[in-house]
Amino acid sequence: MKLTELTKGEKAEIIKIDAEKALRDRLTSFGVMRGEELLVKGCSLAKQTMEIEVGSTLIALRKDEAEKIEIEKI
Predict the structure, then answer these.
(1) I need a surface site. Which of 20, 26, 51, 60 has the fewest CB within 10 A?
(2) What is the pLDDT of residue 45?
């Protein structure tokens, strides 16, 4: 399941990040990595951007970035 399939208020665990090294490194620096839990805080119209919370960090992701994050819904 991809992160973009979640809606506001849903929680998930990150299973895999299928992205190039630069994006993976950037996400890791924000705490977005395999095994972490996240909460979807909000989405723009048509889900062009998503706001997620990992730990105590709020992160905004573009749709193409969110599609590269595989999750398991909690």
Answers:
(1) 20
(2) 85
Domain enclosing residue 14, as ranges: 3-73
Structure tokens at 50: 């998503």
Percent of the chain's residues with pLDDT above 90: 96
Give me the DSSP letters along 9-66.
T-EEEEEEE-S-HHHHHHHHHTT--TT-EEEEEEE-GGGSEEEEEETTEEEEEEHHHH
H/E element, 69: strand 69-73
Question: How is residue 32 written in tokens?
Answer: 């977005």
